[in-house]
UniProtKB/TrEMBL annotation:
Ranges of residues in domain HTH cro/C1-type: 18-84
Protein name as catalogued: HTH cro/C1-type domain-containing protein
Keywords per UniProt: Plasmid
One Pfam family recorded for the sequence: HTH_3
SUPFAM superfamilies xref list: lambda repressor-like DNA-binding domains (SSF47413)
Organism domain of life: Bacteria
Length: 171
């Protein structure tokens, strides 16, 4: 098997153990059991029960998940993206995008070209794309494979965040 599948390990990696521990802990306070099926349902079925199982045993690499699926998984586990990153070590947290104080007055914030294009294309129908808070949030996301250059990929990332209830500045 290739791609995001890895060989099953005797001891799952720490991030796999963190995912399982979090799922199990979610129901403890209420005396309930939160199943892998429950987590899959909470992701809006962006992630199947089988994938949740593979993630928890480490046979699917967490870093192989698309950004939208990572966002959905974090939300399903009642974690913010920064909490998810701290628990799993996966770099999904937004970066601080403020320029250094010395150059703040000299250089205005520059949006990546693809994001600017996405704002021009989709901004009329999706007003949040024209909001500077959203723009900085999107521009500050760390991408495993490098920032997108295509406006459609930026728009897909924005929609994934909105669909999963992410609001910039609410951690």
């Amino acid at each position: 098997m290739g791609g995001m599948y890895a060989m099953a390990m005797k001891d799952p990696p720490f991030w796999a153990q963190a995912l399982k521990a979090r799922r199990e802990a979610l129901g403890l306070s209420k005396g309930e059991k939160v199943t892998q099926e429950d987590i899959a349902a909470r992701t809006g079925d962006l992630i199947s029960q089988r994938t949740v199982s593979h993630l928890e045993n480490g046979s699917v690499d967490l870093q192989g998940l698309a950004f939208g699926r990572v966002v959905a998984l974090a939300k399903a586990l009642n974690w913010t993206l920064p909490e998810f990153q701290r628990a799993t070590g996966l770099p999904v947290e937004e970066e601080e995008v403020e320029p250094p104080e010395s150059s703040a007055a000299e250089e205005p914030f520059q949006l990546p070209a693809g994001l600017q294009e996405a704002i021009e294309i989709y901004g009329q129908q999706h007003k949040n794309l024209r909001d500077p808070v959203w723009q900085r949030y999107l521009a500050g996301i760390r991408w495993r494979s490098g920032q997108p250059t295509e406006p459609d990929r930026w728009f897909d990332a924005y929609r994934d965040l909105v669909r999963n209830g992410i609001v910039p500045g609410e951690d």
